[in-house]
Records
---
Amino acid sequence: MADKNETILAIRDLKVDFTTPDGTVNAVKGISLDVRAGETIAVVGESGSGKSQTMMGIMGLLASNGTVTGSAAYRGRELIGLRPSELNKVRGAKVTMIFQEPMTSLDPLYPVGRQIAEPIVHHRGGSYKEARKRVLELLELVGIPEPARRMDSYPHELSGGQRQRVMIAMALANDPDILIADEPTTALDVTIQAQILKLLRSLQERFGMAIVLITHDLGIVRHFAERVAVMRRGEVVEQGTTADIFERPTSDYTRMLLAAEPHGRKASPPDTAPIILEGRDVVVDYRIGGGLFSGGAALFRAVDRVTVRLREGQTIGIVGESGSGKSTLGRALLRLILGSGHYRFGSTDISGYDRSRMRPLRKAMQLVFQDPYGSLSPRQTVGEVITEGLLVHEPDLGKAERDRRAVAALKEVGLDPDARNRYPHEFSGGQRQRIAIARAMILKPKVVILDEPTSALDRSVQGQVIDLLRTLQDSHRLSYIFISHDLSVVRAMSDYVVVMKDGRIVEEGETDRIFEAPANAYTKALIGAAFHI
Amino acid sequence: MIAFVLRRLASAVPTLFIVVTISFFLMRFAPGGPFNLERPLPPATMENLVRTYQLDQPLWRQYVTYITNAVTGDFGPSYIYKDNSVAELIGKGLPYSIELGFYALLLALIGGVTMGTVAALRQNSALDFSIMSLATVGTTVPNFVVGPVLTLVFAIALSWLPAGGWGDGSLRFLILPMIALALPQLAVFARLTRGSMIEALHADHIRTARAYGLPARVVVVTHAMRGAMLPVVSYLAPCAAALLTGSAVVETIFTIPGVGRYFVLGAINRDYTLVMGTVILIAIFVIVFNLLVDILYGLLDPRVRHD
């Protein structure tokens, strides 16, 4: 076993700067950090804290406008300023990396076995044929089923979890000293996330490499790391053992991060509250393939006979992993996707409504999306973005009145009304999500479907958006359908939870009942993976 | 794979039929006719000609006759080159056009991809800037300017190369027309390659390749370039079809006996059969090259499979 007191990577006064048209950005401002043999050290921070750029800088992977200065010595050997050909002897052999995006981190054009073999061939010599035996061994090690067959598969033929396993196999290929894992599970579903972390831990016990875990997720850190460094705005604000950081944090920022886990509960609406939106036996099929000369298409059932009743003032949380059909269900309930089944909005039966008949009702049913970057048009000012719905639904409003409503909506979501003359790219992710909420609220809706509204946001910002959504719900008697894969947010936000898997509801019930006494095996697994990694 | 090829070939039949039908009627609806010359023909001669070529028949019958004959490989006589059938004219000219077009395609592809790659790797440098300026020149200066300038410099002023003609078919005669023909396409290839290379070099998997210490050459050639070639390959089909079926301008300037000028001459003179022949020729080239490129695409990109 490695000697845990031996420092194998000593980072001293490391700086990373980016030259941009608006001047130099100091992404990392002279940090010092030790990585010891065989340990797991977590580097924690929110987006923009410089946690990834620190490691990218050391590994020579900065974008072309980035420069790294200072010192990072691997077993006494300085890495900063090393010629690429010299650096290439270290990276991929003794220091390896896995990344957040298992979907895009592998080359789509080569079989995975060949990609795992590449660093073996380059660092150890030999042919690809000779490397196959080692590749097979590695794939077995990381738990890929049927490794002999899978090594000739292409990345698109594997699931996200399997691709991350392939990346881990690649990282282990040359028996590394240090494995840098940059948000290795962020893009994965919770149950897969737990499997990947378990795998990393068991591999570490077996091979004794140090793991540098870069993450924003404190839940993972607590169960996985021995030491923690908390980063903020390019600086390390605090470092220490995991126990110290979680039990006795010394910096305000760490305390804030720890408190930022979503909290609070929502009470159920009274049983007398009328049903505002209902979908009975909702079925949505997607056609896959098919064309003029290629024969028949296959049908994929995304939502399979699901019934949802939303009461006034209620928040129903719909949870499930990717591909469970939760987003499709949300869109089907608003009749944005035309599925079969029976639909009711208030007392109106909207089952047979087409687009044009739905249009007058749209004002009362709004949607907020996950991606605050992609869902606002970059060519419109914020004012134009949020008043666009008014042009459709209240065409008689004068310009001044529209502007007054825009000001009110922006104030309501906690933004400066001056924001309406600026463009979306001038705002942070959290602010953009507020703009998206203002766009929905300006129409005074009754039902809002929130599709992963907090998933792209940092924890501390997430808390603020949740608080805002709660306040708006109380003051306007809104009903929410809250779609998320993030169970802790769902628990804090909703009074009723629906668990979906493969297009079906596997379990539903009051929030506390679901989280404290789940009956279904899948629900149990989901909750177990999310809260007790 | 074989099923895919057969299916595509089967779908080529209706495509060709539609192309032929549209061209046939478009051509007939254009004012004038093959025998409306500047000096009008005597009415008796005119009538004689019209009857000989069956132009007095109703249009639909002419169409049916044309299609029936075309299916058996008879594309009719040319109205202008009276001693030749359309098939003979194309058969004689095509080898010249194909040979010249093949060299031009090779030059455009190799030159364009190389220049585009170099420009992408040295993005925003002086080298990148010069290559892209050259590409702009290549696209904006028409080949009826490039051709004479090349002749003026290399054939007349320097006397290094012949000014035109096919001669004995040796490379000397081909160099200038090949450059004139290739230049605009070379510029397109350079631009396409540069754009997709820059994108490819920023892909996450390129970062992975670098993080695993692969030498720069392997990162660029094995990982970035293969992906970057996909849009280039897509453009290959229309480009090859255009180059191999000859260019009216270049063939006229360098007096090359190819088929390129037939399309223009045929259209101007309302030589119905000659135009139809060239249209069918070009359509077949486009269809065949699209098929070849799709097969190539499937080999390059495992996500596109033909089964």
---
Amino acid sequence: MTFYALFLPFVVALFAPALTRILKHNAAWVLALAPAALFVHFLGFLGAVADGGRVTGGVQWIPSFNVNFSWMIDGLSLTFALLISGIGTLIVLYSGGYLKGHKHQGRFFSFILMFMGSMQGLVLSDSFLMLFVFWELTSITSFLLIGFNHAEERSRRSAIQALVVTGLGGLSLLAGLLVIWNITGVSEMSLLLSTGNLLRDSPFFIAAFVLVLGGAFTKSAQFPFHFWLPNAMEAPTPVSAYLHSATMVKAGVYLLMRLNPVMGDTVAWETVLPIFGGVTLIAGTLLGARQTDLKLMLAYTTMASLGLLVMLTGFGTEGAIAGAVLYLIAHSMFKGGLFMVAGNVDHEAGTRDITRLGGLAGAMPVTFVAALFAAISMGGLPPFVGFLAKEEIYYGLAKGDTWSVVFTIVAIVGNALMFVLGFAVALKPFLGPKVETPKHAHEGPVLLLAGPVVLALGSLFFALFSGWSHEHFSTPMASAVMGHAAEITISIIPHLGLALYLSLGTIALGVLLYLSLAKIRSGMAALLAGIGWGPDRGFDQAIVGIVKLSVAVTRLVQRGRLEFYITATLIFLALAILVPMGIAGEWPAVPAFPDLYFYEWLLVLIAVLGLFAVIWARNRLTAIVSLGIQGFAVAVYFMLLGAPDLSFTQFMVETLSVVILALAMTRLRLSPQDHRSAVQTVTDGIIALAAGGALTLLLLRVLETDFDASLTEFFNEYSLQIAHGRNIVNVILVDFRGIDTFGEIAVVMTSGLAILALIRVLPRRSRSALSEPPKNPQNAGEAV
Amino acid sequence: MRTLIFRTVAPFLSSLMILFSVFVLLRGHNEPGGGFIGGLIAASALAIYGIAFGVSPVRRAIRFHPMALAGFGLLLAAIAGILSIFSHVPFLTGLWIYPKIFGVEVALSTPMMFDIGVYFVVFGSITSTALALEERERD
């Protein structure tokens, strides 16, 4: 069942466009059944993983390399799978309303379902290779979704940027996984988790650690790789709600949590993760404070939340891990909801600029309530799951030593700023005097409301029935992250203690900052304008730099002159043969004078005469035809040696190459005469002699070695016996070495296509393309 | 090259060469020959026909674009390889059947199919190149 569950979203994605053509936006109701079915399927595993259990399964994929198509369900992957399929159901419904009437709505459904399948595969993968494949698939589907409005240049740029950053991270992850594979000798997560200290004690631990972080930090938008995430807000809002807050960006956090039992508890882990996470948290909230676009404000708080999660994962205390687990669940629910709210406001009022919105509460009451619930959870107030998370975070961080105090302060400041931004998104558009909006706002249809409302209620129920939810979700997940049994007990009834005081402090700070949000915004704007440079611009500069470099290299080596190519190739050929021979001293001995029949001498004579005819020909066409003389002489000689196949082929190749060369020459409209100067002729002659001489020497040397006849004997013996053919040459070509031949004919066909393309290109156009620099390097960079 | 003698002989020469190329292709497994050489012969047959009558009659005569023939060849070769899946043997393993056609036992095999694929790839690619070059020459 789980095997088919892995494929279900992809299969449904195939039919989504056709279904949408028939049912229009109502196709969402049908398509949402797929993730809903997955959600129900995964609920069935709750019992199995409740006490730290693990369900694995799979099929053999490439047995000879010990690679399996295997999955693993434990507390961590199950919670993720439930979030992906659960929120996925809501997102499919929401897309039905949000993109109603869009001409590519079917395509959108298809993309989002494919993403769902990739993300689900990522968290369920047991085998490293599957993990990597699904990891890259999420990058690719995210690229398709960010670039959904492909007619807009900004969308295209953002899509490419996200693909480049997360794709590079994916390669880093692949390298990291291979290092881990090499160190431990296992290629599956479930086996890796039982290797104990093997990875930690390895001298290559740091290499694996850095490479894995390269994957996790780019995917989870950690500073300084965060810049693609705000740009990804070019995507339609359902994408932002689903990929860029609830699921995909958490893949990096998932990976870190997954590896915590085998990589955690080391100095590197507990230093690098909190520092990068803490910096991302503060940077994200500050950058978010200067935005006025609802989606961008939320995007930066997402970045900050991811920073908080990374910081907690690396902090090293059980309380911090428990806090991370609760916060991850809470964040997926409130941030997904807030994004959908922002989308509703945008959809109904026509703008999402916070300074141009106000007083919508009367027109959109349901949206307002959903927004308020989500913001309360985000701000960490009871009775929502966000409150549980924040209490647990402070409980886990506050430990008394300097290191803990620093990160506690970081967490307080970050949480306070997120509190500000959350309430700004939830309150500013809805309260205050009514502002004239581009569209006359009214409440959206049920498709648009289902998502935020269900998520808001989910946040509430998770906290109200915390005993039940801890037993089924947070405790199994925390146990999986820690690698041993753990228990989360926190409930909404506040306990007097340090954690509660810190929470109260955070709220007080948040209210204070909320009142001076305008000042913070202008201050941040001035500061960023003062800095002037950011990784986003750095990305453009890097891409433009790469394009310029490749243009320069192309100009250097691709001169577009055939003479230059041939000269360079022949010189290199001569050197490549002669230099190693000279260094190794492996010159051939002078061969004995050959003992040939008179007709064989005659053939040699004809070949030599043909060569002289080529050299002394006045006319190029004559030279080409004379080249054939030598070829035919060799072909006849093959016949005498008893190789009819070779001989036939040589005849045909010679004939056709003379015809084609002659045709090409006439087409090039060269002058019929050779106009090279004497010096040039002599230089070219020397190069030709060097290359030809080098090949001769090489062949002579090869003939001096002992001939290993075992292959010949094999083919002689088995050609008829197992391949049913008496023509050994043909049997080798089509049977024994068939896969070589297959590759060769593919090359033949590709070159045929390339020649056709070259001939069809007008000569004038091709020359101007080579000599003119690209007009706008900026655009050239974005086209990469 | 459009002399009367050449133009009179060319159709016969071309058809004989095409026929011969098929003969060479089919006998290839046991006697000198095979798909590669057969394809070359067929390509030169069309080259002769093209030199005698121009490119358009050749294009009309073969109906399909030569690159399409090459693509068909590659596909055929790939199918010949993939057929082995159904016998649970590795890619490109030779499979043989001996049906009786009009009372004569005929050996059919995936290597033969593969060789026919080679024939079409070589034939199509070279014909395409030669025709494209001849065409431009007359512009």
---
Amino acid sequence: MSLDLDEIDRAILNNYQGGFPICERPYLAVAEKLGISESELIERLQSMLEKKQLSRFGPMYHAERLGGGLSLCAMHIPEAEYERVNEQVNAFPEVAHNYARDHTFNMWFVLATETPERISTVLKEIEQTTGFKVYNMPKKKEFFIGLKFEV
Amino acid sequence: MTETDDIILDELDRKIIVATQSGLPLVSEPYAVIASQVNSSTDEVMRRTERMLAAGIIRRIGAVPNHYTLGFKGNGMTVWDIPDEKVTECGEKIGALDFVSHAYERPRHQPQWNYNLFAMVHGKDREEVEQKVQLIADMLGEDNRGHEILYSSRILKKTGLRLASTK
């Protein structure tokens, strides 16, 4: 892999996918361990964010524990209707992200609602608006989320 | 992480969440910046953050790598039909693999949808994803009654999850 990452960027990525300290000057604390200055660490993080090598930096929240509803939903939409349905589905603010996938179930989106009860309401609204069935596939059990992957 | 240590989030916690869900400020004293945004003290914000981390409201604090730009161009959502009584055992085995980023049990919708275990598999291209999926299939043996890889062909919408700001 030819990536625009030097040894220090790799050390940041591999060692701080979690465990970033909570203290008044956390960047200073980590920079000292990496043998660089606080401002250099901040600049490197900014640069990796700008280059989209990081999708974000900071606390990652556990969505379900914030009290809202969350579910993965799938639809199978005929090709001729796809663009119309896509526009209708995306217009719901509760649709957080939506992916086209190569399968008869060809539309997959995540619903995020203010309360868990709202999931079934929004789901029915999507079915009524689009005229197609929505398959609700909420998480029943989580085995792992995160990354152990090294660059 | 257990499900028994749930805590009640109050107004200040929610303000801290809203202030940090897109990221920790990239400044020398990030918790002081958050404190000024939520009208609290740095110590209180750090204490709340520690509490939410301990309770699993915050999964972790740090860098969230972007698989795609870091060279993992082949990402497949793999779905598996596992006997219900084996799904936890198989899910834990799959979740422990270093090329899997998420693994969940989800409901079937028979007869249209028979799969009950989902795992995101990452590789540098589709060929590598397929090799890894074969490794999983070999590992599961007869517990695997069928599987498929669903590649994403297009991102139709991506806004991320956002908690609405409190009034």
